[in-house]
Amino acid sequence: MPRRSEHSLDEIRALALDAVEDLVASHGPTAISARKVAAQIGYTVGMLYHVFDNVDDLVLQANARLVDQLARANEAAAAGNRPQRVIARMAHNYLSLARQAPARWQLVFVHTMRDGRPVPDWYRQRTDRLFALVEEQLQRLAPRRRPAAAALAARTLWSSVHGICLLAVSDKLDIGGSTSAEKALDSLLTHYLGSWAQSR
Amino acid sequence: MPRRSEHSLDEIRALALDAVEDLVASHGPTAISARKVAAQIGYTVGMLYHVFDNVDDLVLQANARLVDQLARANEAAAAGNRPQRVIARMAHNYLSLARQAPARWQLVFVHTMRDGRPVPDWYRQRTDRLFALVEEQLQRLAPRRRPAAAALAARTLWSSVHGICLLAVSDKLDIGGSTSAEKALDSLLTHYLGSWAQSR
DNA sequence: ACCTGAACACCGTTCAAGT
DNA sequence: ACCTGAACACCGTTCAAGT
Predict the structure, then answer these.
(1) Rounded Cα gap, residues A69 and A129, in angstroms
(2) CA distance B7 to chain A (A)
(3) Cα dist from A44 to A37, A38, B67, B167, whole Å
């Protein structure tokens, strides 16, 4: 029973998160287990529990990387452009990131806390941030409207974008054969956002 | 080891599906396992596998009941009214059924096939039906538009409704405190559907 | 101090054997 | 024919014990 001491806790943490991504990418979101991740990085399961609280923590930390990637892309998109264009970029960023790594995003979509534990605050803040970025743009778009109106529109619009990306990644959207998620996003943006921007 | 023979296979099937609903309602969607369902109805796990292919089959059959309930409600809503009103009813049917039995709908939202098995056709047809019902109304609403346009709008709209209901049931929508899913649905219907109906 | 390995209480699934 | 119970290969989580 050799000890390793080759890696710091932070390094082990990074190795584990990489292992989650590799396993998901090659064997799908259901392939994740503490034991498999441990085996992949050459440690025992017990070791994982010195670095992560539990599997939920492990998965959420892996998922947070993707959410952060989307948030960064959306923050970058916010620079300069007209709000309507920024929001369109954000929506397409979501879909295109989801298409780039469908299995990893499926893990984001599919994960639920064991038992009925609540989603931890640090993770919630990251997903809330995505709504906030949309809300900022809607406020720019219609500065004279009540903030509550922009908040409602942001939640409506981003939930809808989420629904489209979710069904796209799980192949439930392309029913007849020809509908693409990109077209659905554009339809949503044209009609929802177009109408919202004009009204009052 | 007493044999029972008290119930036919169909009765056992119904008992098991009821047990799934009871367990989910009282202990949440993560509480479902073949062993627990078997225990709840007084049979062994082995017995379950004479009635269901596997747990996916068990869960999907339970979930299909909810999907069917929504489909029936939406078919009933289709009678008589103006298409725009029918679609609004359908969307609110979805949300209100989801609110009536949040845990059971969470099971619908959260379930994914073990390994990477595909969703069986018989279940897919049921969820596709929900899209089809919306599509029919959109064709009524704009009879002169190309069928592909109605198909795209149906998928866009229903994916969005799905996204809103999904986030509503998992409590991820009410960020600031005041946004309700009902308002988000109405916002979606007003702006998306309103704009789509008017354009051309 | 760092990490292991075994233990505990669970899973899904199969199938020979009992009645 | 109907159903069981034990087996197999997995889980998540904990923690005394080893180095």
Answers:
(1) 12
(2) 32
(3) 9, 5, 43, 37
Average pLDDT, chain A: 94
Alpha helix (H) residue ranges in chain B: 9-27, 34-41, 45-51, 55-77, 83-100, 102-110, 121-141, 147-169, 181-188, 194-198
Using a 10 angstrom Cβ sphere, with 0-12 exposed, 13-18 middle and 19 or more buried, the burial of residue A142 is: middle
Protein residues with beta carbon less than 7 Å from any atom of strand D = A 1, 3, 32-36, 45-46, 49, 54-56, 114; B 1-7, 9, 12, 43-47, 50
pLDDT confidence of A105, banded at 50, 70, 90?
very high
Tell me the CA–C1' distance in angstroms for A48 and D13: 11
pLDDT band at B6 (very low <50, low <70, confident <90, very high): confident
For residue A27, what are the CA distances in angstroms to A7, A56, A114, A182, B114? 26, 19, 21, 26, 12
Burial of B139 (0-12, 13-18, 19+ CB in 10 A): middle
Phi, psi of B52 (to 5 degrees): -125, 150
CATH fold, domain A1-52, is: Arc Repressor Mutant, subunit A (1.10.10)
The pTM (predicted TM-score) of the whole model is 0.95
CA–C1' span, B22 to D2, in Å? 26
Domains A1-52 and A63-198 share a fold: no
Q: Under 8 Å CB-to-CB from B127, ≥6 apart: which residues? A: A172, B67
Q: How confident is the model at residue A4 (pLDDT cuts 50, 70, 90)?
A: low
Domain-by-domain residue ranges, chain A?
1-52, 63-198
Using a CB–CB cutoff of 8 Å, tell me whether A148 touches chain B: yes
pLDDT(B195) > 60: yes
How close is the nearest chain A Cα to the Cα of B58, in Å?
Answer: 18
CA of A57 to C1' of D19 (A): 29
Could you tell me if A1 lies within 8 Å of chain B, comparing CB atoms? Answer: no
Chain A residues in contact with B28 by the CB 8 A cut-off are: 115-116
Question: In the CATH hierarchy, which fold is given to the domain comprising A63-198?
Answer: Tetracycline Repressor; domain 2 (1.10.357)
**pLDDT, tens only, B91-142:** 999 999 999 999 999 999 999 999 889 999 999 999 999 999 999 999 999 9
- The reply to whether the CB atom of residue B49 sits less than 7 A from any atom in nucleic acid chain C is yes
